């Protein structure tokens, strides 16, 4: 009996050494969770039970459990490295084979898919053609590395104050080159369908109490007919550049309280909501001639036209100032960087100042994480004991938050493991001593005469 008891102790001590050694070996493995050997005593059973004073029959390895407590967050220089601060696992797919991991070594493959260091594709919510997240549809996360197409300006919003103490200019007619013919001006960049930038300049001319004219030029030219006019065929041909400088004009009327109450124009379309629309802008550009000749640049204005919102503008007794201006157009952009927030949303930043959502990382959690089956490569797969995965986005429910540019360290505490090594070694020696003692006793019996 003592031989079997000692042998079971040796097996148990060996298992303890193996598990502790594996923990120590993975002390530097990102996302690794340490294991713990769990032992149970053994009693021999009989037909009528074990009796009131049973003798033990040794020890067995009842199970090996993993401790899923949080590891330290270690910051790296890779923006796509991800760490989970809290509950949950990253979901990865290897040709449809789903596994779960806490190791956040992520990058992109040649197709732009986000993959870990084994090439497994990170799963999440993708976006449609308009950049809207497809919540509930789990798929590979793909980073779009192509240039961002330009967008023509279709809306422009301004808030400005016109100085009510200004006098009506005495110098007429309006001339953009002569500041005495207008009271104030401001400029805004707008874009055509090819992403070319154009300067829309507004010149404000007071025409009477509470009334102003807003003269508009684009690139210093008439928005609808900016082309230079051929006046003599030449050679060399002679062009008149002044013909295309007549501005578009809108009359602005303010209330006694200084609020804009109406806009009228024959050049702009006045919408029912009080905004005005530039419906016939023809983008133009100069050539290399001296002086330059202006002509159609081959692009077009937004098919939605250009709607200008001035409704919050005022006329108070203070200096002219533009408090806010925005427009929705932009030029072509190259991918300049990626950012991932703590909810897993991936933003792509472009050189044109725009950003687009590329997708959202999802996390999975289980009712019994101890029931997950480890498959190596710091990954686990679902089992019957773990239950079905609960899928969600970071910081929802019981799921943790994401930290971009960081990795979760192994949760192995080396000092504890080294002490466990000493204990396992002592246990092994003690069980070997049990076998040695039983052998000596047996030898004594054999030597009886």
Structure write-up:
It contains 2 helices and 34 strands. It is mainly beta. It has 3 domains: 2-69 and 412-446, no CATH class; 73-141 and 362-408, no CATH class; 155-327, Tick-borne Encephalitis virus Glycoprotein, domain 1 (Sandwich). The strands form 9 sheets. Strands 5, 6, 9, 10, 26, 27, 28, 29, 30, 31 and 32 form an 11-stranded antiparallel sheet that branches. Strands 11, 19, 20, 23, 24 and 25 form a 6-stranded mixed sheet that branches. Helix 1 packs antiparallel against helix 2. It is rod-shaped and about 140 Å long. 29% of the residues are buried. The mean pLDDT is 92.
Summed up:
The chain is mainly beta.
Task: Write a concise keyword list for the protein shown above.
449 residues; mainly beta; Tick-borne Encephalitis virus Glycoprotein, domain 1; 3 domains; 11-stranded antiparallel sheet; 6-stranded mixed sheet; 2 helices; 34 strands; 13% helix; bacterial flagellum; Falgellar_hook_FlgE_sf; cilium
Uncertain residue segments: none
Main pleated-sheet profile: 11 strands, antiparallel
Count of DSSP H/I helices: 2
What portion of the residues fall into strands of 2 or more residues? Answer: 35-45%
Which overall shape is indicated by the principal axes computed on the Cα atoms? rod-shaped
Total strand count, please? 34
CATH topology of the largest domain: Tick-borne Encephalitis virus Glycoprotein, domain 1
Taking the alpha carbons of the first and last residues, their distance comes to 24 Å
Q: Based on the structure given, which CATH architecture of the largest domain is correct?
A: Sandwich
Structural class: mainly beta
Radius of gyration: 38 Å
Oligomer: single chain
Counted up, domains total 3
Give the % helix.
10-25%
The whole-number mean of residue pLDDT values reads 92
Q: What's the CATH class label of the largest domain?
A: Mainly Beta
CATH superfamily of the largest domain: Flagellar hook protein FlgE
InterPro entries: Falgellar_hook_FlgE_sf, Flag_bb_rod_N, Flagellar_FlgE/F/G, Flg_bb/hook_C_dom, FlgE/F/G-like, FlgE_D2, LlgE_F_G-like_D1
Pfam families: Flg_bb_rod, Flg_bbr_C, FlgE_D2, LlgE_F_G_D1
Domain Flagellar basal-body/hook protein C-terminal: 403-448
Domain Flagellar basal body rod protein N-terminal: 4-33
